[in-house]
Target: Proton-coupled folate transporter
Amino acid sequence: MAQENEHITENNPNINSVNETPARPFRITMEFPLFFTMLSVSLSGAAISNLILFRTCVHSLNHTQEECQVFMSPAKNNGSHELEEEVQKYATFVSMVRTIIDSLAPAILSLFLGVWSDTHGRKPLVVWPLFGMSITAGLIVVYSMMDDLGPWWFILTSIPMSLAGGFTALFTGSFCYVSDITSTEKRSLRMTVVEASVSAGSVIGAVASSYLLRAVGNVYLLLISAALFLIAYLFTVTCLSESLAGAIPGNITSVLDFKLIKSMLSECFKKRPNHGRAQILLLTFANSLSIFIMFGQMSLLYMYTRKKLHWAIQQYTIYSATHTTISFFGSFFGVILVQRVFKVTDLAFATVAILSATTEYVINAFATTAWHMYAAAGISLFRGLSSPLIRSLLSKILPPQDIAKVFALMCAIEGVSPLVSPALYNSLYAYTISTFPGAIFILSSGISGLCALFLGFVQYFRWKSSSIVYENLTNES
Model:
């Protein structure tokens, strides 16, 4: 009976009958700019890592350009084992500082933006970050052309993107926008379509990266990446309509209002019946910890495969594309076939996705050959579903006026993650690179296991309640 009630809570279109989003025909909105944004990020990611490794080797460690040229090669070239280790140890701290600069302003802004968008609309949360990313991408092109600049100068290119809200603001605006324009019964699928557009951009960028690098070189590759950011920005400015009816135009001065934080916290932490507050917070922290892992591993996965498996950019980008493709098809297969045919709830499927990711991290930690990494990617087929399913579930069990506030809390926690996780992961990697570089994946598996435990508690609370309806999380006790 409890399982049936849970399913009714998540999928019954009559539950939100008062404030239900009216049915709208499907049209491309956030999918297009997110696709081009992730295409740009994926296209340039490994090339930027190689550039930082090369500049570190030449300018910070004072090796010759001939010795350091190994880091700029898109093909497999193992170079000196000692040089690789020395350069990676230094470069991880450059990457850590850059990630912190990237995330500092978004972490602060995330406390305000979600609630601010309830009044002033979702579109600014998409337009502002893409403008900042376009400026940052242009500065990276300039940096790549100036051969006499060391790796620490690269950090300055992050400032425009950071001040504009970064990926934290972009994804807050994107998911709130999608929630505004979709009905409850279609939300899981639409959230998955948005995630799929992110995956598709990542796959195509990863596949094309090494080939474009060979064809046009580093500078032109980064120039193409900057152009893609600009296309995404221009699309949102000219083609994206505001999703929030009655939105009042606002500016940056209206964002930093501490009443917005108070409003967010009061709604997210108010007592609700049937352990509603605990359910919301556990779901929020489970999703945010997954983002914590992602930011921690982001700059290290390529370095790990260079060190452990002796890959270069070509081998890594093929693996990255394969991994994302598997996750892409796993997401669609999961939502369209498995979830609908077998009537698996959002919560149960999200738990499966997180457990599969935990298994992947353990395999990666002890991988010794390439097929171990690919096998792990296959095992985590559904890992990409955890975030959209958790967001979808939250949007179904919350009243419409609270959705943006809870998403804002989620993004605020996610905004802090890049300030903490790179320091933790990079320090761990630097200290274990000579003995057990896979320690970062053991850490990830532990955190991922904690996420699964949080979802288990949510499932317990939902089973414990004999009747769970939408209003139970709407009204204060």
About this structure: Residues 1-20, 466-477 have pLDDT under 50 and may be disordered. The two ends are 24 Å apart (CA to CA). Residues 187-239 form the longest helix (53 residues).
